[in-house]
Amino acid sequence: MRTLLMMALAATPLVAVADEQIAMNVTPPPGDPLARAAALPTDPLQRIAYRAVVLKEWPDAPKWKLDAYQRVLDEGITSKNVARRTTYCPHCSGLRCADGSHVRSGICAASKNIPMHSIIWLASDGLLKVTDRGGAVRPHPKQGEAAHFDVWKRSCHGCSTGPGTLKRVPFAVIFLGRK
């Protein structure tokens, strides 16, 4: 009995190696979820753009978002930088943005190194338009952050210093606005 158990244990690594080699050499059939997952880009922004434009997973998405994602694919834009992300709401700010428009979902304040009216992508929030500035909205280069985005929310439970603060969030500028 002991000999059989020893032989089984000794054979296990060989079986595992053989299974691994078989798994690496077998291509899943088209339409298989594994094949689809393998085709997705590794960059998070490219992955979302691919899912939106090529796989058409969100057919009801607004045209401007699909256009932005198409640009991401056409120009090879990636989320190679990271930023700090905070939040603001009507309780901690006014009702107008620096550009004169009303605060609303889908907008953010950005550090001055990001031009006003740029369209940006934040891994935490998706596509946003830069319509605001803020004195405390500054990049933190010592933490490796290239920008700072303060995202408008209807309610933000703690605002710019509270639980809405995220560090090192991948981001990209998709459309550059005017300075």
Structure description:
This protein is an alpha/beta fold and 179 residues long. The protein folds into 2 domains: 30-78, no CATH class; 81-175, Barwin-like endoglucanases (Beta Barrel), CATH 2.40.40.10. Helices cover 30% and strands 22% of the residues. It is built from 4 helices and 6 strands, in the order H-H-H-H-E-E-E-E-E-E. Strands 1-5-2-4-3-6 form a 6-stranded mixed barrel. A hairpin with a 3-residue loop joins strand 3 (119-122) and strand 4 (126-132). Helix 3 packs across helix 4 (63-75). The longest helix has 24 residues, at 2-25. Residues 1-28 have low confidence and may be disordered.
Lay out the secondary structure.
Layout: H1 2-25, H2 33-39, H3 44-53, H4 63-75, E1 81-88, E2 107-110, E3 119-122, E4 126-132, E5 147-152, E6 166-175
Parallel strand pairs: 1-5, 2-4
Antiparallel strand pairs: 1-6, 2-5, 3-4, 3-6
Helix pairs in contact: 3-4
Short description:
With 179 residues, this protein is α/β, with parallel strands linked by helices.
